[in-house]
Amino acid sequence: MTVKKKLLFDSDAIAARVKELGLRISADFPEGDLLLVGILKGSFIFLADLSRAIGRACQIDFARLSSYGGGTETSGVINVVMDIGIPVKDKNVILVDDIVDTGLTLHMYRERVAQMKPRSIRIAALINKTSRREKEVQLDYFGFEIESGFVVGYGLDWDERFRNLPSIYAIEQE
Ligand code: IMP
Ligand code: MG
Q1: Cis ω on the peptide bond leading into residue 135 (within 30° of 0)?
Q2: What's the pLDDT score for residue 78?
């Protein structure tokens, strides 16, 4: 199978947008404990850049959720493979993900984190993919909006490939 890639957002555009998000988050949380939780694996590059664009102290942890068996279709079942390891209670938590598609993953995980009694929960995703939403997810911060399609690069994979591309591409399968 040939995979064609079409450039959507180049690394300069991503860097500029991530800086803006970092400034907004710093302005929204001038004080209080701030905990960034990266949803693995797709968020690893976005979280690395976003955390450095936030000009204040914060804690960082990760959770690993799985929904995709591989390829581009969701299985509809979400497992918490690894949960947040440090205390969440009374902290301002931002869940950081690569992309929100159906919304099932973050809808479920947000409810789970709410039970840990944080002071607040917000969601940051690099990409808001709008056309397949099944569960409403309040996206407090997002970098870019796309309607549909499958995108790779900057942490996002297609069957574990392309995560290390510095820019974001739409893939076209033939
Ligand atoms: P959701 O539960 O349908 O919102 O999807 C959540 C996860 O599916 C994301 O965190 C990604 O890991 C993956 N995903 C959804 N769309 C794409 C895409 O276009 N490219 C790469 N991964 C995607
Ligand atoms: Mg993901």
Answers
A1: no
A2: 81
pLDDT in tens, 43-91: 999 999 999 999 999 999 999 998 655 555 555 678 899 999 999 999 9
- Among the listed residues 33, 90, 101, 157, the single catalytic one is 101
Is any atom of ligand 1 closer than 6 Å to the C-beta of 66? no
User: What secondary structure does DSSP assign to 54-96, as a single string?
Assistant: S-S--EEEEEEEE---STT---S--EEEE---S--TT-EEEEE
Q: Has 101 been annotated as catalytic?
A: yes
Cα–Cα distance measured from residue 36 to residue 159, given in angstroms and rounded to the nearest whole number? 26
CA distances from 121 to 55, 72, 92, 124, 135 (A): 19, 28, 6, 10, 17
Structure tokens at 21: 């998000």
Whether the full predicted model's pTM is greater than 0.90, yes or no, is: yes
